[in-house]
Amino acid sequence: MSDGFEATEARLGALIREGLAGDAASYRTLLRELGAHLRRYFLRRLGPDRAADAEDLVQETLMAVHSHRATYEPERPFTAWVHAIARYKLIDHVRRGRGRTSLPVEDAEALFAADGLFAGDETQAAMDRRDIERLLAAVPPQTRTLIRQVKLEGRSIAEVSARSGLSESAVKVGIHRGLKALAARFGGRNR
């Protein structure tokens, strides 16, 4: 991660935690700094000629952050949580037709691509890690470790087998059963 991103995450993360703990001054500072952060976020995506739309989106996002602040999990990256909210506000804005006039046709595909809204941001990676960890929490710890090592870290079955003390067949079966359980739980079954 870049130093600027880490500094922003550390600063805003500290402010939200202090605000959630009842520090009104920290919460006001958070909203002010978050407003500036979101303004840059939306202007990069909409363009400088859409400043009024960007300002509307900043206000909508700040209201959503305020309304849903109790759902923020302090051990998670705050900027990833905020950017997820901002992303949905931007998508809703475009769907309402307000953003179409400023988006060239060739940019529309990038806007809705999996990482299009976060191009250049480390935020998408943080959000992806958070989502993967939430998914993996649904399987037993040993299975979670096997899936993480083979599917996410790219280790070989043989390497994981040697490290875990399990046979290669047991590693394969564990991964298969874990992925099957995740698919069943989160709607990945063929219907």
UniProtKB/TrEMBL annotation:
Residues 38-98 form the RNA polymerase sigma-70 region domain. Keywords: DNA-binding, Sigma factor, Transcription, Transcription regulation. This is RNA polymerase sigma-70 factor (ECF subfamily). NCBIfam families: PRK12539.1, sigma70-ECF. It comes from the Bacteria. Pfam families: Sigma70_r2, Sigma70_r4_2. The keyword Protease does not apply. It comes from Labrys wisconsinensis. SUPFAM superfamilies: Sigma2 domain of RNA polymerase sigma factors (SSF88946), Sigma3 and sigma4 domains of RNA polymerase sigma factors (SSF88659). The keyword Repressor does not apply. Residues 130-182 form the RNA polymerase sigma factor 70 region 4 type domain. Belongs to the sigma-70 factor family. ECF subfamily.
